[in-house]
Write a structure and sequence with these properties.
By secondary structure, this protein is an alpha+beta fold. It has 7 helices and 7 strands; from the N terminus they run αββααβααββββαα.
């Protein structure tokens, strides 16, 4: 019984998410979370365009809440808007932008679209980015293309810091899949060592003059060793000659 309730709940959540995404349109929403509180249901919409989601005088929010009450039978739904600070570090927003550009410009310019977006992300300060497109690009046979730059973790605990997303572009030649993975500059890398100024001040580095004198001393020692070797060899030969006589 508990399993059936859980499956039914997840189906309802999936239906709510799909309705809101379809109603607001592609590229408007990044993430959508549903939280259950004693007061009612809280729907948190993460978006880089809060003005489009809210609508004029909150008309869009009122429309969504009324549909959630009537169609999905939610008792007291409350819609909250969470604004994304930088849309270039949000993988879902980037994937939707690429998909919409492919739909508008066509699949023949997929390299221009991918490289342009990749450069924008890296110039914004991202540690790394990877864009994958798959479909009939540009030939009739399906093919996968990869565009990547920077540092991107693919194993270990640091992979949790990588933001990943998928999108679909409906073009004249067929469906094109888009996958995006972005590592933001604020991402925590567990194997990275950072030496701050306070630690540098504690460490005593040798001066350049001292390094030069040490190098000169080592060179002189090597020269002396080289000069002593032939003298030792001569002495050994002379001693052998005397013994033989």
């Amino acid at each position: 019984m508990e399993e059936r309730k859980f499956i039914r709940l997840k189906k309802e959540e999936y239906g709510i998410k799909e309705y809101i995404k379809r109603d607001l349109g592609k590229g408007k929403i990044s993430k959508l979370d549903i939280e259950y509180t004693p007061i009612g249901e809280k729907i948190i919409i993460s978006t880089s365009k809060p003005g489009f989601v809210i609508g004029r005088r909150g008309e869009k929010i009122e429309e969504i809440t009324s549909v959630l009450k009537t169609r999905f039978k939610l008792e007291n739904p409350h819609v909250e808007i969470k604004e994304i600070e930088n849309r270039l570090f949000d993988a879902q927003t980037v994937a939707d932008d690429i998909a919409m550009d492919l739909e508008r410009m066509g699949n023949l310019k997929f390299k221009v679209v991918a490289y342009k977006k990749l450069q924008e992300i890296m110039r914004a300060g991202a540690l790394g980015c990877e864009i994958r497109t798959s479909g009939k690009l540009p030939s009739e046979r399906a093919k996968s293309w990869r565009f990547g730059e920077g540092y991107l973790k693919k194993a270990g605990d640091s992979t949790k810091e990588v933001d990943k997303a998928k999108a679909v572009a409906l073009t004249k030649t067929g469906i094109i899949g888009v996958k995006v993975a972005i590592m933001a500059p604020t991402a925590r890398i567990y194997d990275r060592v950072i030496i701050d100024d306070a630690l540098k001040a504690k460490v005593k580095f040798p001066s350049k003059e001292k390094e030069k004198t040490e190098v000169k001393e080592e060179i002189e020692e090597i020269k002396e060793i080289k000069e002593e070797k032939p003298k030792k060899i001569k002495k050994q030969k002379d001693n052998k000659d005397k013994e033989s006589k």
